[in-house]
Amino acid sequence: MKVAPAVAVIGLFAGLLSNVAHADSDLPVWLQERFEPVHYDLTRMVDNTARNLDQFFGTEDSLFVENQSFLRVALDTRLQPGDSKLDPSVRFRVDMPTTKKRLRLIIESDIEEPLNRLSEQGIREVRGGERFDTSNSAVGLEQRSSNDPSESWVQGLGLGVKFGAPLDPYIRYSALRQWNFSESKWQLNSSSRVTQFNQRGLQVRTNFDVNKPLADDVALRFQTYAEFEEMRDSTVFSQTAEINRILDSRTALRYALIVVGEDRGPNTIKDYILQAYYRRDIHKNVLFMDIIPEIHFPTEAGRDPYLALTFRLEAFFRGNFSRAL
User: Which range (24-28, 37-41, 133-137, 229-233) has the least confidence?
Assistant: First the structure.
């Protein structure tokens, strides 16, 4: 499938949505009437499931306290020369805040998803694998401290099972921290996790995010991501430089240069990527549309630069829509 016609089709689709835009939705009325009952039922299911489990393990306060449970469903359409595909993903997190030690039940279709989603496509191409794969799905429990990450480390300990033949149980440690430098306005975020699988062995991931606002609607950001897998006996990494712009209350645009590499093979650097990332809240902070054109400059001998395009629809089902995820 050619990328250029796909860009035109998606641009036309975005234009049609904008022509029927309302204050908080781009969907036409007839589509809102079909989507909202489904969204309401799934949101109620997520919220009720979370609160009932929390009440079983915790206290009656579970019926009233803030709950951060959510169901996220995404569908990516990836278009690039010779390799166009649909790539769904699901993540279901049940939060149990009133248990003695705060627990989270996590069901995910992609246990391999990087901590940093921006460069996930480049990372995925280097290490291979589809996002929605039964043998790549997992279910687990996580206990995480409720500290403020700007004041102290937020640490978590989890265990679970990765599906496949055979099942692969794992134990995981995670840590989050944030440092704010008020005088310079720079902010540093650190996110790491260490997972020990019974079959696959050790997996270590870390992400550093350094950002600074340049104006009320523009921010500069640098992200460094590294991932070591014992089974692959290699480390995959990416470095990203971004300019983020807020176009309005429902629209954001990001320009990024991404460098992706791996410490094996003839070339350490595998790919240079120029990326634009357009994100639009198309319905009431629960349904989002992403359009992500990219130019890849692979370093492998015999591979020419190529264009790629990702079109993503992402829906969130959660009781408190105002919370950022």
Answer: 133-137
| Separation CA 149–CA 51 (nearest Å) | 25
Query: What pLDDT score does 125 carry?
Result: 64
In 3D space, the residue among 116, 111, 113 whose CA is nearest the CA of residue 124 turns out to be: 113
Q: What is the mean pLDDT of the chain?
A: 84
User: What is the mean pLDDT of the segment spanning 213-230?
Assistant: 94
- Over residues 156-176, the pLDDT tens digits come to 999 999 988 889 999 999 999
Amino acid at 233: D
CA angle 168, 174, 177 (to 5 degrees): 165
β-pair type (103-108, 251-262): unpaired
Domain 3-317 falls under CATH 3.40.50.11930: no
Q: Give this prediction's pTM.
A: 0.82
Pairing of strands 269-283, 287-298: antiparallel
Query: In 10 A of CB 92, how many CB atoms?
Result: 19
Token code pair at residue 176? 């989050």
